[in-house]
């Protein structure tokens, strides 16, 4: 894959290993956004006249990127908003399986609505535990992140496909915020019923944009109440609004969703297979170094065949500042120092990080 670090000013000035907190803005994206602002500046409402065709085009871009159907794509300002609206539409008799420290917008949206909930811990043998719990508790819904935001544990997508085949009535809802943009993903072939994501991390779309996508078969499982003029594209006579469009109840920001589309096109031009190979190389190198230093939890250390681009390191929060003094930007989550990699990182970044960590541990 071609080197793209030069496209991202932050990556040129820092060792930025913090995509799990925020993806970066490229100079090309800045140019695009300035053009959009200029069009609005000189056009006013004329700029908005193309919104229906514009957003339909964005839906097509999302569908093409994830191998789904454009008519089954909802555009949402963020995953959290969409997830809450969606869970509100579940029948009160549903029983939901959750991972115990999954992203709050997944777990809280379920727990706050009084649905029956079953939780399980994230362990090295996660897939075995999930299968056992599904057989034992017979949940009707399983909601999960493909990659865990705290420690980077990545669920085996081949397992998810088999799980769906064995339990076809089990509704699978997946958050791809910490995963989409790191490798090719076919929604059509995944076995997952609903996917959603915010676009500001590995998708490089900036803030205020995200999406949900559905299979045809799951539409009847939800009775979503949200709706508005935008759900009907301004048609005040509309009486039959689909689930997909009920998640588009109000005006959408062409600036933000155009940025999401731009990010997807940027990644597509780089080739997702090449991106995957490149990021796998960085993750394997980092994993070996972190393991050697004894910084990984068992749930990650014992899953070398399911590495993501996120790692949780057993270090105190004070070391976040030590790294910052060396221009290394990371995060701190759940009593762990979290680092994460994307296309603007290099082996040099990994080497610099490992050297800094060795110095910390040797002091």
TrEMBL record:
SUPFAM superfamilies tied to this protein: PLP-dependent transferases (SSF53383)
Keyword Nucleotide-binding in the entry? The reply is no
Q: Which InterPro entries match?
A: Aminotrans_V_dom, PyrdxlP-dep_Trfase, PyrdxlP-dep_Trfase_major, PyrdxlP-dep_Trfase_small
Q: Which segments constitute the Aminotransferase class V domain?
A: 53-353
User: Which Gene Ontology terms cover its molecular function?
Assistant: transaminase activity
- Asked whether the keyword RNA-binding is assigned, the reply is no
The record's keywords, sorted A to Z, are: Aminotransferase, Pyridoxal phosphate, Transferase
A family per Pfam: Aminotran_5
- What is the protein name given in its UniProt record? Aminotransferase
């Amino acid at each position: 894959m071609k080197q793209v670090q030069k496209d991202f000013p932050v990556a040129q000035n820092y060792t930025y290993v913090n995509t799990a907190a925020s993806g970066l803005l490229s100079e090309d994206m800045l140019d695009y956004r300035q053009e959009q602002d200029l069009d609005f500046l000189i056009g006013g409402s004329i700029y908005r006249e193309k919104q229906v065709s514009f957003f339909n085009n964005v839906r097509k871009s999302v569908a093409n990127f994830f191998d789904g159907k454009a008519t089954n794509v909802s555009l949402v300002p963020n995953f959290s908003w969409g997830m809450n609206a969606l869970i509100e539409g579940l029948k009160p008799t549903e029983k939901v399986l959750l991972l115990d420290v999954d992203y709050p917008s997944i777990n809280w949206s379920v727990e706050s609505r009084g649905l029956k909930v079953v939780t399980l811990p994230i362990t090295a043998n996660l897939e075995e535990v999930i299968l056992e719990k599904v057989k034992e508790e017979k949940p009707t819904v399983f909601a999960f992140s493909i990659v865990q935001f705290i420690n980077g544990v990545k669920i085996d997508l081949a397992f998810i496909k088999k799980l769906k085949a064995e339990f076809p009535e089990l509704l699978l809802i997946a958050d791809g915020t910490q995963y989409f943009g790191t490798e090719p993903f076919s929604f059509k072939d995944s076995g997952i019923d609903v996917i959603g994501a915010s676009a500001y991390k590995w998708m490089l779309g900036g803030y205020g944009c995200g999406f949900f996508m559905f299979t045809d078969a799951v539409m009847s499982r939800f009775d979503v109440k949200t709706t508005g003029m935008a759900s009907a594209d301004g048609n005040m006579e509309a009486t039959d609004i689909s689930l997909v469009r009920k998640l588009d109840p109000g005006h959408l920001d062409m600036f933000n969703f155009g940025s999401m589309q731009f990010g997807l096109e940027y990644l597509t031009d780089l080739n997702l297979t090449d991106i995957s190979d490149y990021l796998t190389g960085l993750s394997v190198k980092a994993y070996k170094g972190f393991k050697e230093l004894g910084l990984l939890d068992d749930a990650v250390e014992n899953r070398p065949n399911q590495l993501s681009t996120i790692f949780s390191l057993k270090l105190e929060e004070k070391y976040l500042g030590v790294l910052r003094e060396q221009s290394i930007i990371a995060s701190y989550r759940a009593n762990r120092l979290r680092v994460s990699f994307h296309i603007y990182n290099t082996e040099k970044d990994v080497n610099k990080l490992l050297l800094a960590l060795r110095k910390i541990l040797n002091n």
